[in-house]
Every structure is written in C-alpha cells, then in structure tokens.
C-alpha cells in the first residue's frame, strides 16, 4: 500500500524562507579572501598561481550553490502556494455540491 502524502504549506513556506536566508548568507561569505591574501603574499611563486586558481574555484562554487539554494527556496514557496490554491479550489467545489443533509428516521 502506498503511504499517504501529507503536505503542510506553512512548513513549506517556513522552509523556503530559511533556505533563502541561508542562500543570502552563503553568497555573502568571502571564501576566496584567504586564498587571495596567500596569493599576494606568495607573489612570484607557483604557489601564488595555485592559490588564485583555488580562489576562483571556491568563489564559483559558492555562487552556484547560493543560486541553487535560492531557486530551491522559490520552488518550495511556489509549492506551498499551489497546495493552498488547490485546497481552496477543492473546498469551494465541494461546497457547491454539498446541499442540506437529509436524515430519515427508520
């Protein structure tokens, strides 16, 4: 038997907000700065070039991850909105068909 899927839109919304906050914090990290400083201190050595390359790789990875996290947050938020819209539409549709309940005594 397939397990029941349960969705809690407010939890999705909170998760989306937290994910967006983390994405912003990640984007603000200066992950390459220590490597840039090392490259400057090692000017003229092959190690300086290696530090510069690593700085570029780390900053690119940070930017990509931050972007992916932000996109994921957007998708979570959209999912929450769509679930709420679907639930509201279903409730409205059911309300149109639900008439007065008739009881019969046997």
Automatic annotation (TrEMBL):
Superkingdom of source: Bacteria
One annotated GO biological process? protein secretion
InterPro entries per the UniProt record, alphabetical: EspC (IPR022536)
Name of the protein this chain belongs to: ESX-1 secretion-associated protein
Query: Can you name the source organism?
Result: Mycolicibacterium boenickei
């Amino acid at each position: 038997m397939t397990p029941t899927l349960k969705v809690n839109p407010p939890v999705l919304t909170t998760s989306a907000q937290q994910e967006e906050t983390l994405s912003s914090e990640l984007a603000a990290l200066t992950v390459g700065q220590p490597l840039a400083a090392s490259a400057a201190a090692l000017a003229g050595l092959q190690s300086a070039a290696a530090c510069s390359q690593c700085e570029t790789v780390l900053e690119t990875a940070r930017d990509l991850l931050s972007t992916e996290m932000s996109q994921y947050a957007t998708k979570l938020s959209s999912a929450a909105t769509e679930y709420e819209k679907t639930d509201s539409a279903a409730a409205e549709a059911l309300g149109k068909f639900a008439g007065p309940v008739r009881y019969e005594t046997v």
